[in-house]
Input
Amino acid sequence: MQITKGVHRLGSGLVNSYLVEEAGLVTIVDAGMPGNWSDLLAELASIGRTLDDVRAVVLTHGHSDHIGYAERARTERGLPVSVHELDAALARGEVKNPARGGGPVGIAVLRFFWYGLTHGGLKSVHVGEVSTFGDGVVLDVPGAPRVIHLPGHTPGSAALHVEARDVLLIGDALSTVAVTNGSTGPMIAPYTADPAAAIAALGRLDGIEAGWVLPGHGQPWTGGVAEAVRRIRAAGPDGMGRPAA
Ligand SMILES: [Zn+2]
Ligand SMILES: [Zn+2]
Output
């Protein structure tokens, strides 16, 4: 579905990946779960594009529900896959997932696990080779996103700011749904390695404006970056898995 001009989302909002289009060329931001490959083909077709128009896969972090079809894109299509340097080992499957517990759990977690079960998400496909980026760089891919390092959810979590599209692709540095219990609103995502660091890192978004904040899980946030950060800070020391008041 189209989010805004030149930006599309795969999936219904539970596990998101995005397409950023510029001059007919496409960057894939995050790669969902392996079973989302068919959604990728369908979404490309819906905008009149094919895999031939895709130039790169960029990952907001190395978690298994974000690297899903990246290895397939790399090996079958020769597409470069990149991730922040501090998450490269995680994406390659060389280190253990640093994430901790998910906070309060409700019935909604079953939906997430069912989604994983039916989209190949229980057996992650690690990325054989990734190129890496650091904070502040502008990536030489369609859309020219600028990297904002937001460590905490994972050490190498990063947001991608596509200023020309008024979009901030924020990965799991901020969620708008808790996959564990279904609560909604800006929050620190469940399964965050270091919630305090994740909240502190949001200070790095000072001065960043984006009409569309696009999370890895949940619906777009259109209330402004500063307001999202304010709500999370107001929610207490972990802000994890529950809505920020
Ligand atoms: Zn994650
Ligand atoms: Zn995630």
